[in-house]
Design goal:
Structural class: alpha/beta
Strand order of the largest sheet: 1-2-4-3
Organism: Zymobacter palmae
Strand content: 15-25%
InterPro entries: MetalPrtase_cat_dom_sf_prd, YbeY, YbeY_CS
Order of helices and strands: EHEHEEHHH
EC number: 3.1.-.-
Enzyme class: hydrolase
Protein name: Endoribonuclease YbeY
Length: 158
């Protein structure tokens, strides 16, 4: 049985607060990922909405890329012998997400949902560096987003 994620939401951004997802919305978006991974016992996470400058700094520091990005995932690795239910942290730049949503003809809410699920799947160990990994992760994203009534975010790329 899936465990409802416990989310610490942090809004460290100058962005229309009405357009940012609430904790309840984030929980609804993330629940399908946890339902798809019923053995996942790590259910605590932080979702932090940040300015592009913070996104850029983190992306540069941890990924060597000197640009802001839509979402960064920081999985938590517990020290040996410690059972801590922390999954990790997501850092989302709403300004980047909004630009991408507009450029891709998606609603802001749908793109936020996609980036939130995408980041969560990274926390759960998924990646998209290799083609087979990307296909697996994108297929799961499509299925999870469809369960929320959201169209395939990759349909225009195929």
């Amino acid at each position: 049985m899936a465990v409802l994620p416990e989310i610490d939401v942090q809004y460290a951004v100058n962005f229309d607060q009405q357009l940012l997802p609430s904790q309840e919305v984030l929980e609804r978006w993330l629940m399908p990922a946890f339902e798809a991974h019923p053995d996942e016992t790590r259910n605590e996470m932080t979702v932090r909405f940040v300015e592009e400058s913070e996104s850029r700094e983190l992306n540069h520091t941890y990924r060597g890329k000197d640009a802001s990005t839509n979402v960064l995932s920081f999985p938590f690795e517990a020290p040996p012998g410690m059972d801590i239910p922390l999954l990790g942290d997501l850092v989302i730049s709403p300004h980047v997400v909004a630009r991408e949503a507009e450029a891709q003809g998606k609603t802001l809410a749908d793109h936020f949902a996609h980036m939130t699920l995408h980041g969560c799947l990274h926390l759960m160990g998924y990646d998209h560096i290799e083609e087979d990994e990307a296909e697996e992760m994108e297929a799961l994203e499509r299925r999870l987003l469809a369960s929320l009534g959201i169209d395939d975010p990759y349909k225009d790329e195929r």
